[in-house]
Hints:
By secondary structure, the chain is α+β, with helices and mostly antiparallel strands. The chain contains 15 helices and eight strands. The strands form three sheets. It has a four-stranded mixed sheet, with helices on both faces. The protein has a two-stranded antiparallel sheet with strand order 5-6. Strands 7-8 form a two-stranded antiparallel sheet.
Amino acid sequence: MSxxxxxxxxxxxxxxxxxxxxWKNVAFTERLSTREVFKADILPRVGWSVIPVVIHxxxxxxxxxxxxTTDIIDHVEACEPGPSVYPDTPRQRLAALILELFGDEWxxxxxxxxxxxxxxxxxxxxxxxxxxxxxxxxxQFVAAEKxxxxxxxxxxxLGINPDSVAAIEAAYEDFLAVFEAHLGxxxxxxxxxxxxxxxxxxxxxxxxxLRDPKSGELMRRLAPxxxxxAERCHAPQHSLTGDFLPDDEIPAGVEKLLQxxxxxxxxVLRDTADxxxxxxxxxxxxxxxxxxxxxxxxxxGHGDSAVTTDRAIIPFPLWMLQRVTxxxxxxxxxxxxxxxxxxxxxGAADLDEFTLPVRLQRRNFKLALAD
Length: 371
């Protein structure tokens, strides 16, 4: 049995999956997501244009089609032997789930800002090379204009605008400083083995912020350990070595990262949950969610540099948050008390009892209200 990863080097979420598959040491081949591949493989299997897509050749006629990085990783974890990226202990497991959410759904803000503010020509050439690999470079660049216009135009929905740029950059540099200091003591978030939280951070930090040239120069200058960590987590490796820290330890640097989640991302998730409750009030089970639920005022940035700006209400992160609350709710006794103490210490005491207003599911590769 083997896997086929369909994606592109310029894709944030493809980078996350590629790094994980390499560490897990499973056999996989990679196919570039050209226009022809979208038409022949992705659209017939998934129904809409999205990457990455993984096809698990499991012996069945068509194989198993997987989409969304978390679903892909969880499928491989269930099917393949060997060490897991999920810590066994409650505090580390909960923290890893939160940091996967933070990386996937919040660090996308600096990832998109730096790409389209400082690396636009590089990204456009990369988009063209992916979609039209047989054209000469000049024609590739021109052919990518429409796609680049779509992606660069979407950044305002993330809260990226002239009023928020300084806050975004200050918060990103603060993140780099915290993670850089942590990596002076540990190879990864929770010891010598990468966790699901590491791979959540890897997508934006490698595929956009390191690989894109201008932001890559910034990371190598301000946070060289972070740059080396991203290269190491993404590089081919076959040892499957490493362990999580004993005694369910949460390193001080990880706690600081969790505090950034609590201060920056958690309030937006609470607002999103409120909007979901209103939207879902008259909807039937199984109803697909729209990509956005409207707009709200959100705080972007960290500390004194933070600003309040307009931002789209994006429901997908709540599915990731549901993984956090489901794990929390499955704990009992001392384990449950330990994660409650962690949530309070990181500044998210209300997450200890928080419940989504409705359950969510992924059905037909889209987000929907649970049946």
